[in-house]
Amino acid sequence: MAEVQTHTEAGEMTQIFIEFVMMQAQNAALFMGQIPNPRGGQPEVNLPLAKMFIDQLAVIAAKTHGNLNADEAKVLDSALTQLEAAFMDVASRTEGFHPGESLAPPPAAPSAAAPAPAPIVTPEPPPASSAPVEEEGRKRFTKSYGA
User: Fold this and answer.
1) How far apart are CA 67 and CA 46, in angstroms?
2) Which residue, 106, 88, 108, is CA-closest to 47?
3) What is the distance between the alpha carbons of residues 133 and 113, in angstroms, rounded to a whole number?
4) Tens of pLDDT along 73-83?
């Protein structure tokens, strides 16, 4: 009869942890405009979402301090250092950034042959409070077709 495996090998857990850290880092890089959006192929800048992913990694680092092996700690610390530096660079180049605001990448010089593409607008995540939304009829999302 086959034996049910009830534990995961340490090496496998390390690999899964490193993949988790890299996935969070990739999401942060995506929202800092460093990786093109897979849907539209254009870079997208959404600093509040990028900050959320970086903050999540910082919480993981704080909560797991002293419980990670050398490889896990090195990958996590390196990812945080690089992401924080990239965030500061992108935030300093973004004029008029206000927390909670989604920003499209800066417009490129218009081409005479083709109209400029419409900026990518992403919905903001709902607030973390459990209070009911006061304005149910309030307009939450907008769609733009250029212009």
Assistant:
1) 32
2) 88
3) 46
4) 999 999 999 99
With a CB cutoff of 8 Å and minimum separation 6, the contacts of 10 are: 69
Instruction: Let me know how many helices (H) and strands (E) the chain has, helices first.
Output: 3, 2
Is the separation of the CB atoms in 44 and 94 below 8 Å?
no
Full-model pTM? 0.58
The token pair that represents 138 in the structure block? 């309030």
Q: Which helix (H) or strand (E) holds 74?
A: helix 70-93
Q: Using DSSP, state whether 45 is helix, strand or coil.
A: strand
Q: What are the CA-CA distances from residue 64 to residues 15, 40, 76 (Å)?
A: 16, 36, 10
On the CB side of 55, CA atoms within 13 Å amount to 6
Tokens linked to 84: 């924080």
Assign 85 a pLDDT band (cuts: 50, 70, 90): very high
The CA-CA-CA angle for residues 131, 132, 134, to 5°, reads 115
